Amino acid sequence: MKVFITRQIPEAGIRLLRDAGIEFTEHTEKRNLAPEELVAACKAHDALLSVGGNKLDADFLQACRHLKVIALMSAGYDNLDVATAKALGIPVGNTPGVLSNATADTAFLLMLAVSRKAFYMHKRIEKGEWGFFDPTANLGIELNGRTLGVFGLGSIGTALARKCRGAFDMEVIYHNRSRNEAAEKELGARYVSFDELLSQSDVLSVHAALTPQTEGIFNATAFGKMKPTAIFVNAARGSMHQENDLLDALRTHRIWGAGLDVTNPEPMDRNNLLLQMPNVAVLPHIGSATEEARGGMARMAAENIIAGLKGAPLPHPIG
Ligand code: DGY
Fold this sequence. Notes:
By secondary structure, this protein is an alpha/beta fold. The protein has two domains: about 1-95 and about 290-310, Rossmann fold, CATH 3.40.50.720; about 100-280, Rossmann fold. About 35% of the residues lie in helices and about 15% in strands. The protein has twelve helices and twelve strands. It has helices at about 10-20, 35-45, 60-65, 80-85, 100-115, 120-125, 155-170, 180-185, 195-200, 220-225, 245-250, 290-310; strands at about 1-5, 25, 45-50, 70, 90-95, 145-150, 170-175, 190, 205, 230-235, 255-260, 280. Strands 8-7-6-9-10-11-12 form a seven-stranded parallel β-sheet, with helices on both faces. Strands 2-1-3-4-5 form a five-stranded parallel β-sheet. Helix 1 (about 10-20) runs parallel beside helix 12 and helix 5 (about 100-115) packs across helix 7. The longest helix has 20 residues, at about 290-310. The radius of gyration is 21 Å and the shape is globular. It starts with a strand and ends in a 9-residue tail after the last helix. About 45% of the residues are buried. The mean pLDDT is about 95. Bound molecules: (2R)-2,3-dihydroxypropanoic acid (DGY).
């Protein structure tokens, strides 16, 4: 039994595969595989451990219907046609939960960095622009006691809300597909409509899954309903916000600032105008990039591969 791994993964996952006697091929080149390369590689293997955004759509799945299991090393599965995989009888799994803290930390870092223009200040020092102390310059805004709005209060959104309650005593409101009663009880989180989330949040942080319903949902209309003092944070998927609309909202002071760990496309062009704005902080999709989270994700993906190749139920199935 052989598994194809689309990128080099942490040793924790490799060790599990080795211990289980599973052969593997790791695509170690630092580049994305073209769709036809992925199909060709999968044809020579029995299972796929997929890292990154390779499109695993209906065409791919039809071509690779022999696969005994597909294990994503990610929480998000917007790149995979789950319905077709299920119809073809291919078990599919992902790695939720283990990256929640790391991703929430990233959102927390972004909101704080934006509120104090930290990335921009760093750039100014590098350019030799640290001048005399001016009490009217470099002013940010404080997060203490403000309202955190979470779009998608699952495990990442809840981890962020917990941090914001503890660190800044923030009030938590949220909008979700369904009510999260546990978070309401633990954090006093209040369910609100999407419009209320937009109009009441001081920091609006996106943690929902990318679906046809959420794609592009943060557009000019949405930004137009936010407070002029609001900070928009996205550590989920870049396609949920319309980048030109965000740029306009920032330029016209419709909103105060933005922190992005995800962009559309990725990587972001180095000349992107957002990178020049004082109240913007951008990171290169590092939400889950900690030793702990990535090690855990690799382990979970390997566990799914091992179970799938044995014909056993996946320990971390999608859906
Ligand atoms: C996820 O797990 O979905 C992260 O965005 C890493 O891809």
